[in-house]
Amino acid sequence: MRLWLALASLRLTLVGLLLLGSATVVVYAREQSATTWLAAPLLLLAVNLMAAVATNRVFRRQMPLLVFHLALIVLVLLAAAGRLSYLKGQTEVTEGAAFEGLTDRDAGPLHGGRLDQLHFVNDGFEISYSPGPVLDRNVSRVRWQDGSGREQRGEIEQNQPLLLLGYRIYPTSNKGFAPVFVWQANHRQPMLSAVHLPSFPANANAQAQTWRPPGSTDDIWLMLNVAQDLIPSDRASRFALPDDRKLVLRHREMRYELQPGERLVLPDGMLEYRELRTWMGYRIFYDWTIPWMLAACAMAVLSMAWHFGKKFAATPWNAQAE
Q1: What is the pLDDT of residue 245?
Q2: pTM (2 decimals)?
Q3: In total, how many domains does the chain have?
């Protein structure tokens, strides 16, 4: 009993709140994962609250208060569980290609999701701009398979994600151009590769990238010269491929220019510039606790309404103080 009373102490509550506040400051200051720093204080506060409920008779006499504090306990436990099992990630997918993994990942140590089973295809996007230019609407067309194996198609936006295997997939404002090449190293099978140029229009004047073809020992520097004003600032517009899709390439000391469909023979292989496509950046988020936290919040609100309803019902509204 003494142990439960100690765990229910308000001093322990204060310690837990101070640790939680300090952990929040550390997370923002160091820009690192919140998992290690936040899970422990949340669990400590949950134990403290459970001990308070178990040792205080007031909760057993007033059912609405008991339900409210039980909902708080569930919320705190879910918050800790969410920090231990969440995932946040970024990826870039070429138009017409399938998701192959994350390029940037932040996850809790207990994340055991099915990221390796996640599969969707980027079928292109439509982005509209208001004068400025200001991003107006970003719609990404995607294709996936449902639970029965049937192919599905749909559109997703920044506030309307695709939900697959518990993962929420959102398009981002990060997008750009992607030259597609067929590369055949000497004595090897040809390979189809896409090179993602820097995000456009954020890097409109720096559409260049360095790429090393598979099986090659040399880098190739390539640049797309976007001469025309694709996204004008004085009128509404849409994201579109440039009319001039010529690439400038540098290999060793040589400079080349390629149009879609043209080939280039290099010492270690043959390079064909197939076409110019687009790529889209996606944000992938996983947290199984969200719907349960919403339910716990609803229970807490309803229990408080129950509590105050009983309290006010016990006293007439027009009662006058004597």
Answers
A1: 95
A2: 0.81
A3: 2
